[in-house]
Write a structure and sequence with these properties.
It is a multi-pass membrane protein. Keywords: Cell membrane, Membrane, Transmembrane, Transmembrane helix. The chain is an all-alpha fold. Among the domains are: 40-231, no CATH class; 542-733, MFS general substrate transporter like domains (Growth Hormone, Chain: A, Up-down Bundle), CATH 1.20.1250.20; 745-938, Growth Hormone, Chain: A. The protein has helices spanning 2-31, 33-38, 43-62, 64-79, 83-118, 126-145, 148-154, 158-181, 185-211, 224-231, 233-248, 250-259, 264-271, 273-283, 289-299, 302-327, 331-339, 345-363, 366-374, 379-403, 408-434, 438-464, 474-500, 503-528, 542-559, 576-604, 606-630, 633-654, 656-662, 667-695, 704-725, 744-774, 777-805, 807-830, 834-863, 868-899, 904-929.
Amino acid sequence: MADDHRNAHTRLSRNAIASVVGQLIYLVTRVGLPPFILLHVSLQDYSIWATCFLVLGYIGMSTFGIAGVYIRYSAEYYAHGRLDDIGRMMGAGIWLTLALGCLILGTLWVSMPWLYAWFHVDPGMQETMRLLVLGVVGAMLLELLIPYGYVMGGIHRNAENAVISLICSTLEAVLIVVFLLQGWGLVGMMAAYVLRAVFALTLTLTWFHRLLPGFRIHLWGLGKAQWRPFLEYGGVMQANGLLSVFLNTSERALAGYVTHHPGAVGLLDISQKFPMMATQLFNSATNSLLSAITHLHTLGEREELVRLYLRSSRYLNALNGLALGFMAPFATVLITAWMGQSVPVADAATLLLYAAVGFHIHALTAPVTSYFQAINSPARTFWAFIVPQIVLLAVGLAWMKWRGETGLLALAGTIMLTRIGSSLGVIVYANAQLGIGQFRFFREVAPIGALPYLVGYLASRAVSSRPELAGLGRWEAFGMLVLFGVAYGAVTLGLVFALLARPDERRVVHTALARLGQMLRIGRRGSDSPGAAAPSGFSRWPVPVATFGVFTGLGLLYSLVLPGGLLASLFAPALMPTQAWMSGLAVLGVGLAAGFGGRWADRVGPRPVLFAASLLFLAALLSMLLGAHLQVKNLVLSGYGMAGGLGLGFGYVATMPALMQVFPARRGMMAGLALAGLGSGILSAGPLADALPKLGGNPEPLGVAETAFALGSLGLVLLLAGCLAMRLSPSDGKPAPAREWRSPRFYLLWPMFFLSAATGIGLSRLAVPILQDMSDAAGTGTFVAILGLADVGGRLIGGWASDRFGRQPVCTGVFLGGGALCMALPFVGLGADLAVFVVCCAGAVGLLGGGIATLPAYAADLFGTSRTGRVHGSLLTAWAVAAVAVPPLVCGLETWLTGLGLAEVHVRFVLLWMASGLLLVGFFCNLLIGQAKGAGAS
């Protein structure tokens, strides 16, 4: 019996977590769709789409009894091992669904004119609405006709259902975007929904027969025992479902009729989106509650059932309070950040506030209804919950009519009060049925959900007291939302833990933190042990993919702070020293973070360092957004300049140790791939900035701060994705002595890195002005793009060549070949041969890029992989010094040589010859360094 308890709780926890995670990812994909949809369809058309799903909700509840029978009785039959009874029940359900589906579709076809009149649909959109309604309802009935998914929920396979739902919902979101961009409008959205249903059905069929091989559905020879659950239990569930969906959507069902405004349903749908998403997210955990309570009730374990009921109510209240306690006070900021000015913000914010409070209290009835269904008494839900809510709603509507109120806000407020009153009533009734004292229930459940509202209200008062934060734009509101959301979450969780957490809950938190620390320590010992064997099933291929994504994100983020980048446009041209200082601060941050970050990555692996880099970039983006809004130059300068530089340094050195470790025979190629990702991110920043308005369907260009924030957010997403995907394999068995990296070879490798970086930076600054004298502006832009591509290609080819021919020969070719090309460039420039000049410049940049890509693998060969982070971080200071020192040095030399009487073009030629001399010095350093014994790449 104890094993049954543990198995039930284990399945419940697993299914609840999977359901919540799957629902979270699904809802995240849905957050971005309404703003994108409203760029391609009008609010009135979107109201028609929302109306279709309102109708779908009612139709779905008309089949709710069938789905409830599948889940409830599958759980009971499965607990007793009666799989054949499940097959017979499914056969009866299929026949019933087939008959009911034909009746529903026929009724819909006939009643469409009445729906047009009720929702005030324009005549030009009536045929479109007919197609949409019939399409989405048909797709829903198809899923119900083959009910494997519902049975999987009944046999405690909600985790598998969550995976299928996640895959298919992501496919639907992608198809919606594609079809809208193709101009298909609402019909394309309907097609995406239908394709999602077909794909989900295919996956469910495949997965179910893998879980229960040999399972059969019995369509013939059915008796009264198979039909009775649908007629008795399912009939009551059917009535409850129809009335519940009306009460849950009563605002939208009555909005068009009461207000006579065709856009009212769409405005309600948008305003209620976030509160409804939050309650759906956390209530998805209760999808597993019905089968678990049924299991315990079948075994006669009432005390365990009561504990499960109280615990689920407490945690459900806490989670909903944490989310909705922030949404309600910050409703205006949330609507502004999400929808901008495409909807009436003040009305939408008030509607969101009403929805948050009402849906929160209503969400607490989920354990109650699950209990009534589990004990085979769904009629109690009808008499104790639905009937009182109908009475309260009728009283509220009568009061509105008596007062002459026809506004949307009055309707939403009235329905919020009826929802709260009926929810509290059924909770009190269920507590009495379970023998739970009311004071005990509200003492354990209520405070943990009310405290977040107090914290959120105080935070919103702090915001509203600052006049300079009023009138925020869309991106500024988003930045403030993230900033205050993080602070709110930290403060609320801390107060809940300190004031309201029970001893057993605190022990769970302490145990989880201790386990996390133990995992980090074990991972560190395992990765540092020379003889550690690779864990079974370890795959090294996610590491280079994650690393390329990380470096691409770093390139996007770094491109913002480069001279001539987007952030430079925030300042007037007269403030060029400010732009230079911001770029210099970023490079200084790279140098400071690289050394410490490399040591940290060697100790704990790449993921904590990458997460720290993500937090730094988040702080940098928020400070940039806030500084641009408040017109505070120093906030952008210090915020993005310093915090972004530190994040760049951490991100740069975090992934290189893992990359060198998992591919010991392809270190050069892997390093070249990573650094090519950095160059690709920088190159793609410009085209992405131009494409953002077109992607959103907005012909007007975005502001500088908004574009920079959007690109930075994309880079941050890539950084976080790489952080989650990165895994550290065991060491390759060649640890270095603790102080070997301080040997003379390191002090020869450092100037090699410095000279390569300095020459590349100087070449870029000198070659572009020379080309400007030889071609027009369009030719110059093409030339810069060619140089960028040559740099990316050179890193890939140089890394591959160093694996094939060795590090020292490749570095020799880089320094000699680069020096020769820099020496030849002045003569080519004097000949005014544009094509040859471009080829020589591209060759020199490609060689220097290949040299920089070779050096991390060079260092790993010399010093081993156990301290690659420390060594590479120290070497990265050479690039930081070059980036800070070379631009002012080039400017100073140009001024000095011009003062000696040289022409401007001749000054650049002299500097190119100096660059070739620097590369010659690097060549001699490479000759002196020598390869360590056995440190070949092959």
